[in-house]
Amino acid sequence: GLNMTEVVVYTKEGCGPCSAVKRWLDNKKIVYTEYGPSEAIASGFRSVPVLKYKNETVFGFNPKELEKAFQ
Q1: 1: pLDDT strictly greater than 60
Q2: What b-and-e string marks burial along 34-70, b requiring 16 or more CB atoms within 10 Å of the CB?
Q3: Alpha carbon distance 42, 35 (integer Å)
Q4: Is the pLDDT of residue 61 over 80?
């Protein structure tokens, strides 16, 4: 699988799209590091979920964009 440090997901509690992103990653057996809303804000993101992988940033739950990010 991918190295844990490579995939970062910013999420918060009670966020449907955040759960959807995590489920998508779990289904693909992609390991990720999860950060909360305060880290998201510190990184300059106003809303979650945000997924970062290498040079890719995916906002919200967008399976097409997620597929592209991991090609």
Answers
A1: no
A2: ebebeebeeeebeebbbbbbeeeebeebbeeebeebb
A3: 11
A4: yes
